[in-house]
């Protein structure tokens, strides 16, 4: 009886009694969701264009952030801050594009036409390589990433909002807008969609698969960089970032693997859900549900709608 | 010319279907068993036991379990660490609740508990496949570890770190800090031999064929009268049974004390998955080769990089990460069937030796 | 040659198959008013026909006519929107794949659906799975009942292997076999089930003349020696007309003709469907 009360009644009483905390939790959850969405976005891009389920997307975010902080450390001290940041950002983007070229050459090209599950496992291996390489080059201690993003806290009628969170939301929003334009309006975007529909057919009309893959992985790398910056500025650049990034997977299950809006909305649902459950149902579970809440939600969801919120229904043929 | 089957005729189907139809294979197996049973127990010491033999044997058992699920039945799982934790914690609960219970039964029952949990998390496999299922099993990983860390009943309301009490089997102390390395080694070896034999029997018979048919072409299997859910759940059950026993042995024999969040985290899941990819998916031999590789490579790297070259241990760890990752990619590209397939090719070459064709 | 036979058996004379030792019995399987839809697309629209025991029944039609969908309905992979299936003395709104398999319906697929990672022998043994009943305990030990039934079924499978002349590829993983042999192994897997009714989805697609002749021989032998009822989808009209006793013609999911090969050949609807018809 007590348990039923604690599960079904008490949390809502708390929400009603302390609406400020509730609103703050909601905002915090949505902002965490934005970060998940950013990682998920990279997954969706690659999955759409190549059918590859890139397990390494989270590690790519870590790798990008590590590279960025590493380069900033090695820049000469006398330079003005904005110059350091811009040069380091530019260098990191170049490295991420180089990484895409290497991945295409070394991993994807030899595995073309293999079963997708083999490619999935290859990206698992890739995540280990990237993690080892990032740590090896830049060291594995926790780093502070400061590229001059606003870190103050706004007080809006008693509700505290971190400016960093707002920046992240704006970054995610503009990223989605840019990607949408890129996909629908540019020549490369059309080619990308063609490749996503049918590799063979795309090849036959003269689209270079290799070129497309390099582009997609580069874009995914840059998306990973944005995610890495946001996350790194918030909680430092460290190994655990790659584990947190795994939560992008349940986000995708919720949103559907091929849907960009799905990635955003899935991320928001999961971020919101886990924060609210963490805070208001604390007396039931005793904390740290953030570790598994997203996955269990996805698992429950899979039982009823395997194709996700925005995915197409899968019809099997013989 | 030494290794060939020419002249070894089979006169009935029973002879044709035995486990090791080729005479030379029987000799090799006998030699391995003699070394493992009659020589190693007399020369084993604490370092060899704890650093090399026990990790190899435990991971071989776990890899065998995961290979049944992934390699034979084609269902990807990233929840291995969580299932190992189920085995470890249920064995802890069993042996503290029933102190008189023989450790052999404790470990078997822990396997049974893990099988039940495995079936539960295997249920979604009816509706989802491939990497979707992989994500679903991540739920098992994170949820189970959280549960063992948060619910005090599982660690008897003491510290969240659990410690294996000393237990004797046939008058020999096999668990606890005073245990004899030779006794521990033989105890685990017994499990390995029995359950490897069972796995070999399962995969070459009706059960194995139904698993492989689901793996290769689930729709056709269904139209042949194979029930997909039962078959997949059986694979989850058997696989989790092995993994659970492995977890129990890790806790009781190898480590002695474990904490769920450290000993059974998600890196363990990757570790075992990598072992079977490198060793060979869908191969019992591959599970052993992969486990040997993954368990021994860090030891070898440490000796070479840290002890000889004088590298910082952390750096050596990073190099190990990169090496493992690269090897996974290498094997997937060059030899998707892993070390086991390489061994097979070597045997085929040996058959013709010294002639090239 | 095919042409000559056609002329021989034509006309109003009784069928030239009087030397035939086969007996064709009562209907064993019938579909009535089957409708199958995918979203807005109607794949099969109100189709009925029956299949008699021991006959070779062909389903023909242009691409996309709903032939494969029909087979999928027959062994329960697709559930029809409406209509019923009569089989083994019972009436079902839709078939259950397990029920179909365990009551003697076996099939092959248009795009080969073999278990690519397994050997020919294991593929065929998988066809015997329903016949193997020993429990899990004995399976673990591979002893007693488990070993006994393994050997019995192995002997049965070896007979199928001899019949199809695939002895040399017993141990080869089927993924490495050439296309024609894969088709033959797939037939073998279906035959290993000891089926009463055999559904063959384009067994000769993509084969050369020689392979087609072999395959036709196997189908006829199966039908004559074991009395197996065969339902056949095939595009090669020569093969269809030679082999089959009766033919159903589908076009855009609708049945446009049903009868003996000669009747069907003379049917104006069929000629229109295959050759096209001018709409002026």
What is the CATH class of chain A? Mainly Alpha
Largest interface comes to:
A-B, 47 and 44 residues
Number of domains of chain A: 1
Instruction: Supply the helix-strand structural class of chain A.
Output: mainly alpha
| CATH architectural arrangement of chain A | Orthogonal Bundle
- End-to-end separation of chain C in angstroms reads 37 Å
| Ends apart, CA distance between termini of chain A | 52 Å
Instruction: Output the strand order for the largest sheet of chain C.
Output: 6-7-8-3-9-10
What is the global morphology of chain C?
globular
Q: How many helix segments of chain A?
A: 14
* Helical stretch tally of chain C: 11
Oligomeric description of these chains: heterotrimer
Rg of chain A, alpha carbons: 21 Å
How much helicity do the residues of chain C have?
25-40%
Provide key terms for this protein.
heterotrimer; A: 318 residues; mainly alpha; ABC transporter involved in vitamin B12 uptake, BtuC; two-stranded antiparallel ribbon; 14 helices; 2 strands; C: 280 residues; alpha/beta; Rossmann fold; 2 domains; six-stranded mixed β-sheet; four-stranded antiparallel β-sheet; 11 helices; disordered N terminus
């Amino acid at each position: 009886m007590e348990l039923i009360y604690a599960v079904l009644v008490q949390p809502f009483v708390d929400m009603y009694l302390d609406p400020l905390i509730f609103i703050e939790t909601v905002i915090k959850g949505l902002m965490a969701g934005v970060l998940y969405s950013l990682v998920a976005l990279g997954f969706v891009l690659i999955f759409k264009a190549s059918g590859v389920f890139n397990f390494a997307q989270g590690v790519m975010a870590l790798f990008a952030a590590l590279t960025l902080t590493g380069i900033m450390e090695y820049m000469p001290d006398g330079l003005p801050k904005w110059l350091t940041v811009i040069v380091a950002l530019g260098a990191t983007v170049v490295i991420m594009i180089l990484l895409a070229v290497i991945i295409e050459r070394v991993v994807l090209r030899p595995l073309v036409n293999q079963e997708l599950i083999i490619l999935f496992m290859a990206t698992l291996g890739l995540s280990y390589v990237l993690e080892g390489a990032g740590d090896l080059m830049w060291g594995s201690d926790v780093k502070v990433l400061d590229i001059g993003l606003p870190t103050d806290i706004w007080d809006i009628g008693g509700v505290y909002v971190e400016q960093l969170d707002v920046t992240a939301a704006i970054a995610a929003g503009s990223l989605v807008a840019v990607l949408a334009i890129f996909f629908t309006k540019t020549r490369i975007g059309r080619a990308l969609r063609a490749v996503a529909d049918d590799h063979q057919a795309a090849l036959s009309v003269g689209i270079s698969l290799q070129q497309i893959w390099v582009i997609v992985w580069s874009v995914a790398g840059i998306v990973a960089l944005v995610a890495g910056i946001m996350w790194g500025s918030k909680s430092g650049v460290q190994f655990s970032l790659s584990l947190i990034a795994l939560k992008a997977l349940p986000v995708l299950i919720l949103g559907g693997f091929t849907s960009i809006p799905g990635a955003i909305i899935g991320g928001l649902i999961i971020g919101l859900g886990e924060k609210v459950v963490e805070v208001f149902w604390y007396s039931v579970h005793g904390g740290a549900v953030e570790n598994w809440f997203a996955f269990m939600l996805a698992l429950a969801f899979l039982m009823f709608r395997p194709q996700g919120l925005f995915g197409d229904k899968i019809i099997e043929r013989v | 010319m030494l290794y060939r089957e020419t002249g070894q005729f089979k006169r009935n189907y029973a002879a044709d279907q035995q486990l090791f139809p080729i005479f030379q294979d029987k000799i090799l197996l006998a030699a391995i068993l003699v070394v493992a049973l009659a020589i190693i127990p007399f020369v084993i010491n604490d370092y060899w036991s704890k650093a090399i033999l026990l990790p190899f044997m435990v991971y071989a058992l776990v890899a065998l379990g995961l290979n049944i699920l992934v390699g034979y039945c084609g269902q990807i799982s990233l929840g291995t660490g969580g299932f190992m934790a189920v085995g470890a914690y249920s064995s802890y609960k069993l042996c503290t609740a029933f102190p008189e219970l023989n450790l052999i039964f404790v470990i078997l029952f822990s396997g049974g508990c893990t099988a039940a949990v495995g079936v539960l998390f295997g249920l979604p496999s009816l509706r989802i496949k491939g990497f979707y299922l992989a994500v679903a099993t991540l739920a098992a990983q994170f949820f189970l570890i959280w549960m063992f860390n948060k619910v005090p009943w599982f660690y008897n309301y003491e510290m969240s770190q659990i410690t294996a009490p000393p237990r004797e089997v046939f008058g020999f102390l096999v668990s606890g800090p005073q245990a004899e390395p030779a006794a521990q080694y033989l105890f685990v070896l017994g499990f390995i031999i029995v359950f490897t034999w069972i796995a070999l029997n399962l995969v070459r018979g009706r059960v194995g064929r139904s698993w492989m048919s689901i793996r290769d072409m689930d729709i056709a299997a269904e139209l042949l009268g194979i029930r997909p859910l039962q078959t997949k759940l059986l694979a989850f059950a058997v696989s989790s049974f092995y993994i659970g026993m492995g977890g129990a042995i890790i806790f009781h024999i190898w480590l002695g004390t474990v904490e769920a969040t450290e000993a059974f985290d998600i890196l363990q899941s990757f570790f075992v998955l990598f072992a079977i990819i490198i060793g060979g998916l869908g191969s019992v031999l591959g599970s052993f080769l992969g486990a040997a590789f993954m368990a021994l490579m860090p030891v070898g790297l440490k000796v070479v990089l840290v002890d000889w070259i004088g590298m910082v241990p952390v750096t050596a760890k990073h190099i190990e990460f990169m090496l493992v990752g690269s090897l996974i990619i290498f094997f997937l590209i060059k030899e998707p069937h892993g070390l086991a397939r390489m061994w097979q090719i070597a045997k085929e070459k040996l058959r013709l030796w010294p002639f090239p064709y | 040659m095919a042409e000559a036979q056609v002329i021989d058996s034509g006309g109003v004379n009784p069928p030239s198959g009087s030397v035939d030792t086969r007996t064709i019995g009562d209907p064993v399987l019938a579909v009535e008013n089957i409708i199958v839809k995918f979203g807005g697309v109607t794949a099969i629209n109100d189709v009925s026909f029956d299949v008699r025991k021991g006959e070779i029944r062909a389903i023909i039609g242009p691409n996309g006519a709903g032939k494969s969908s029909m087979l999928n309905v027959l062994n329960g992979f697709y559930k029809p929107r409406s209509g019923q299936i009569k089989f083994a003395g019972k009436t079902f709104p839709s078939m259950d794949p397990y029920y179909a398999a365990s009551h003697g319906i076996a099939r092959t697929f248009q795009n080969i659906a073999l278990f690519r990672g397994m050997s020919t022998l294991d593929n065929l043994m998988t066809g015997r799975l329903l016949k193997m009943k020993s429990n899990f305990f004995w399976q673990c030990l591979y002893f007693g009942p488990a070993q006994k039934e393994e050997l019995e079924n192995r002997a049965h499978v070896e007979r199928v292997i001899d019949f199809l002349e695939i002895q040399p590829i017993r141990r080869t993983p089927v993924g490495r076999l050439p296309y024609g042999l894969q088709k033959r192994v797939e037939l073998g897997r279906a035959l290993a089930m000891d089926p009463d009714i055999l559904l063959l989805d384009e067994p000769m697609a993509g084969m050369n003349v020689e392979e087609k002749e072999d395959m036709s021989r196997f189908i006829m032998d199966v039908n004559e020696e074991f009395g197996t009822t065969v339902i056949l989808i095939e595009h090669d009209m020569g093969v269809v007309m030679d082999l089959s006793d009766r033919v159903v013609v589908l076009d855009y999911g609708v049945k446009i003709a049903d009868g003996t090969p000669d009747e069907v050949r003379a049917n104006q609807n069929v000629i229109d469907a295959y050759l096209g018809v001018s709409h002026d």
